[in-house]
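Chapter review. Work through the record for Phosphate acetyltransferase before attempting the end-of-chapter questions.
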Amino acid sequence: MTTTLPPVDLLKATPSNDQPVIALSEGSDPRVVAGALAAVEAQLANVILVGPTAEVEATLEAVGGSVVGSGLSIHDPAVSELTDEFATAFYELRKHKGIDQDAARKAVKSPLVYAAMLVRCGHATGTVGGAVATTSDVLRTAIQVIGMAPDAAMVSSFFLMYPPESAENGRAMLYSDCGLVIDPSAQELAAIATASAQSCRTLLRSEPKIAMLSFSTMGSARHAAVDKVITATAALRAEQPDLCVDGEMQFDTAFVPSVGENKAPGSQVAGQANVMIFPNLDAGNIGYKLTQRLGGYAAIGPVLQGLAKPANDLSRGCSASDVTQMIAVTVLQSQGTSDGN
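C-alpha cells for Phosphate acetyltransferase:
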C-alpha cells in the first residue's frame, strides 16, 4: 500500500493491540510537554516525562495538562525507584570502559541516559530527545545505552519529506543521510541505502525505489565523487539483489518522469524514486532544506536508523507538533521492528 500520510495520521490508521510507551528525556521543556499531551490525547502512546518532578509539574500546569488519567507519567531520575536497577545495568554495560559504580549511578541520573535506560531495560518502547540536548549527545547516549541493531552496519539518519497538495508529481519521500554521516564511503553509502529501504517500508508503507544521487547521470561526468556513488550502487546490488535501486543519477532524473525517461531510459527508478540517497552531508542537508523551503515540503526528522530499539533526535528549534510527529515515528519504528520488518 502506498500512502502519503504523515506519521501521526498513519499511526492513527494502523490498528494495534500494543500500548507503546515513549520516554521523553526533556520532560520540563514546554514544547516537549505540549507535544506529549497531544500524543496521549490522540492515543498514539503513553508518555514518560523524564526530569525533576517539580519542574515537570510546573510546565504541565503552565500548558494546562495533568498526569491524572492522561497517559502521562513523570520519572525523576534523582529519586526514581528504577535508578538503582539502571545504575547496576549501566555499570555492567560500561565497566569495560573503566567506569566505576559511583560514576554509573551519577550517569543514570542524567535524564538523557535515564530515558535511554528505560528503553534498554524494557520499561519504554522508545525515546525522543534533542529539544535541548545536542544531536551528538543524543546519538552518543543512544549508541552507548541502546546499542546498534545486530544486522546494522552503522547508525545513520534520514528525513521524511511530505509534499504540499499543490506539488506537481508530489510524493512522500525519504532523504538520507541529511543529518549525521558527513562523508560516507561507498560501502557506507550502500549501508545507508539498505537501512533507508527498510525505513521506507516502515514509515511510508511503500516499496523503496532508491536513487543513488550524484551530479552525474549514467556516466555523464567523470570524477572520484561519481566513482564513489557508482561503487556504492554496485555494492548495494550485489548485497541486496531484490532491492529496486539505480544510479548514479541526478536529482531531476530521479524525480521527474519525463527527465528520467530521457536521461535513464528503461530504469525502474528514474522519475519514480521515493528514497533519495545523497552522496554526502553537504548535499543531503542542503537538499532537504531546499525541498522544504522552496518546494513547500514538510520535513520530519532527523530520524535515526540502525539502533537496536528506537531512539530519535529533535531539532533544537522544534515545535510541539514536531514532538508529536516524532513520538509517532518512534512508535511506528517499534512496530516495524516487532513485526519483523
